[in-house]
Amino acid sequence: MKKLLALILALTMGLSLAACGNNGDTQDTGSPAETPAETPAETPAETENGGAESDLAFVQDKGTLVVGITEFDPMDYRDADGNWIGFDADMAKAFAESLGVTAEFQLIEWDNKVMELDGKTIDVVWNGMTLTDEVTAAMSCTNAYCNNAQVVVLPADIAENYPDTASMADLTFAVESGSAGKAQAEANGLTYTEVVDQATAVMEVASGTADAAIIDSLMAGAMVGEGTSYDQLTYTISLNSEEYGVGFRQGSDLTELLNQFFVDSYADGTMMEIAETYGVQAAIIPQE
What we know:
With 288 residues, the chain is α/β, with parallel strands linked by helices. It has two domains: 55-147 and 243-283, Periplasmic binding protein-like II (D-Maltodextrin-Binding Protein, domain 2, 3-Layer(aba) Sandwich), CATH 3.40.190; 150-240, 3-Layer(aba) Sandwich (D-Maltodextrin-Binding Protein, domain 2). The protein contains ten helices and 13 strands.
């Protein structure tokens, strides 16, 4: 009888241990249980400029289009109340309005325009900018909208003594740093001193600290000669012919929007109306 009870007890304990070893749990305890991968945080859609945000979205989000300029009558200059006006300034305001934002104007050193643009301290360079190979390689540029040339500014009473660049070999010129005027001084082998902007270049000639200056023909027409603040100066020979464009960051989606804005504003007469306000209508390139 004792033997039978011992056998029954042994069988009972064996079954109990087997149950504890399994316990009905099929989970693999060799590694932690896998959990669903986290959903990545939503990021702005990639755009044609390779950035996380388009330039259009960038300016609309902050509510401003920051326009890099210099003092450049008749394109960008201040009125008696200190407001920025001019052909380029008025066009920039109208374009900004079409985007639902406000134009803000930021004075820059012309030689630093690409750095300012890429650093996003400005959104666009819109200041009678000549479309040189250097400019078009560094920026996303619009179609040309205005014709221009680099011209020589001299005191009116000696201008007839300098009919060509050969006769100007002994003159010292004032030119804006990084400008098309500087490029023409170099191309023609002329002696020059760099200044901060074209207005200063004209001032240097008026004060006698430079013999002559090389500036844009549109600016010369507005700044020197009879009826201007520099009636003792005149402009003479053209050193080249060139075209103006507007520059955005490389790959910017604002470039084509401005090209279309040019087409539309030319078609409805707005562009020519603004041009006539500032006397540059003859230089405007038809937009199609």
